[in-house]
Amino acid sequence: MRQPLGVILAGGLASRMGGGDKGRLELGGQSLILRVIDRLAPQVAALALNANGDPSRFADLGLPVLPDSIAGHVGPLAGVLAGLDWAAGQGAEAIVTAAADTPFLPCDLVPRLLLASEGQAHPLVLAATRGSAETRSKSRSGLIRHPTFGLWPVALREDLRAALLGGLKKVVLWTDAHDGREALFPSEDGFDPFFNVNTPEDLRRAEALLERA
């Protein structure tokens, strides 16, 4: 497979942070979204941002801004679909997504996802870590899946569109229906590479984690 395109998902409402763009919060003197760009851009052929509202507020990033094409804030799959539509216009086969509020995402995210997809007719893989926490994203294998971090095939975009228009919101219901796989990432000494900033307390934790990243 050719190198996939990358899409940063920034379409959430950030309600637990009081609204606004979480990706603009600063961590160690650099915004969260710039930290995500720095880690993801070298791994993909091109990069875009999924966000709703006025796109000019992201003009300084120099990235295409892709709004959701499905109305109603239906969740991250709407951003995935926007990315797949963009990728189809670029002649790409697949995209890799990452959340805008995850400053420690793995620098080998794309290679691990691609490795896990080998042999699939339509590459569909979610990032996963080991853990004992109860979560609705835990798979039958016992791994904790991270639904905003995945490899998504352009070939299934119309299927995804139909599912969203039919009311689907939960990522893993759709990936399981298409035999999606998991790519295991290490989370050593309690450090979660997919840690995301949802609350002011999370931002304080991220400051403490910064030295370990």
From TrEMBL:
Record's subcellular location: Cytoplasm
Which amino acids does the record list as binding Mg(2+)?
A: D101
Swiss-Prot/TrEMBL keywords: Cytoplasm, GTP-binding, Magnesium, Metal-binding, Molybdenum cofactor biosynthesis, Nucleotide-binding, Nucleotidyltransferase, Transferase
In terms of CDD domains, this protein maps to: MobA (cd02503)
Q: Which GO terms describe its molecular function?
A: GTP binding; metal ion binding; molybdenum cofactor guanylyltransferase activity
Residues bound to GTP = L9, A10, G11, K22, N50, D68, D101
User: What range(s) does the MobA-like NTP transferase domain occupy?
Assistant: 6-172
Q: Which reaction does it catalyse?
A: Mo-molybdopterin + GTP + H(+) = Mo-molybdopterin guanine dinucleotide + diphosphate
Which top class of enzyme applies to this chain? transferase
- EC number annotated for this UniProt entry: 2.7.7.77
- Free-text comment on this protein's domains from its UniProt entry: The N-terminal domain determines nucleotide recognition and specific binding, while the C-terminal domain determines the specific binding to the target protein.
* Known partners and oligomeric status: Monomer.
Cited NCBIfam families: molyb_mobA
Q: What protein is this chain from? A: Molybdenum cofactor guanylyltransferase
Origin species, per record, is: Cribrihabitans marinus
